[in-house]
Write a structure and sequence with these properties.
Blueprint: H1 2-34, H2 40-64, E1 68-71, E2 85-88, H3 95-100, E3 106-110, H4 121-126, E4 130-131, H5 135-147, E5 151-153, H6 172-180, E6 184-191, E7 210-220, H7 226-241, H8 253-257
Length: 259
């Protein structure tokens, strides 16, 4: 039976990648057509909600195969929390997909090259996602998005994790939190698989099933000293992810973490 299982897992891998590509490409075509027609605020709201719906559909489809299991319910507590900086660790390419699949009004900070990507660019531009090529400009645009009521997803590491437990943090989270005067909600993404981590070949099959769990961490008040806050945030992630085993969420844990 093992050879049949292996064949099934390869089929699921290729199906998942093809489905994600199809979902992204289909929406980016529609979003590209809508972008010049809709006012900025309406287009952004529509684009962000459409991305949430598309990614939720994708994760549900993958879950049905039995090769991936996602425990993302903790994020639902953030829906009614107003403007926040959502700051997760970044073990894989699926991290943004998981977070965005649960929250309807999140502006994502992404690499500038992805805004020109054929699969992601049109949808990202309609959703008014931000690129991280210039820190001062990013801080200003992120602050404007937060003041309009959106939440902001930004990975403090700036790229996928290459060293345990997390890479050295960039200054964007601290700078935006200070300028916008909004709290920083830490989020921890836990997985038992290196799939789509930094350096993982796209078509390399991982061991299956894979498990992903998201839990909420501490919520930090807006800082007055950005550099001191960056160091504190780094220490907190190092302590939380420095070898502690994943554990089931206690009843009510997500609500308590959300404040």
């Amino acid at each position: 039976m093992r050879p049949l299982r292996t064949v099934y897992e390869y089929l699921v891998l290729y199906f998942g990648l093809a489905l994600l590509g199809l979902v992204c490409l289909s929406w980016t075509v529609i979003a590209t057509l809508l972008h010049p027609l809709l006012p900025r605020r309406w287009g952004g709201a529509l684009g962000r909600r459409a991305i949430m719906t598309a990614f939720r559909f994708y994760l549900a489809a993958i879950s049905i195969t039995g090769t991936c299991r996602f425990d993302l319910a903790a994020l639902d507590a953030l829906r009614s929390q107003g403007p926040l900086i959502i700051a997760p660790n970044h073990p894989s390419l699926l991290d943004a997909v998981m977070v965005l699949s649960r929250l309807p009004d999140v502006v994502c900070v992404m690499k500038a090259a992805l805004l020109e990507n054929i699969f992601l660019g049109g949808g990202a531009r309609l959703a008014r996602y931000l690129h991280n090529d210039a820190l001062i400009r990013l801080i200003g645009k992120a602050t404007a998005s937060l003041r309009e009521g959106a939440q902001l997803l930004i990975f403090p590491e700036g790229t996928r994790t290459t060293r345990a437990p997390v890479n050295a943090f960039k200054g964007a989270v601290a700078g935006i939190a200070k300028r916008a005067a909004v709290p920083v909600q830490t989020v921890f993404i836990e997985t038992d698989s290196p799939f789509l981590g930094k350096g993982w070949p796209l078509f390399r099959k991982p061991a299956m099933p894979m498990h992903y769990r998201i839990r909420l961490g501490r919520r930090f008040d807006p800082p007055t000293d950005a550099q001191a806050f960056q160091r504190e945030l780094q220490r907190y992630f190092d302590d939380e992810l420095g070898g502690a085993p994943a554990r089931p969420a206690a009843p009510g844990e997500a609500k308590r973490a959300a404040g």
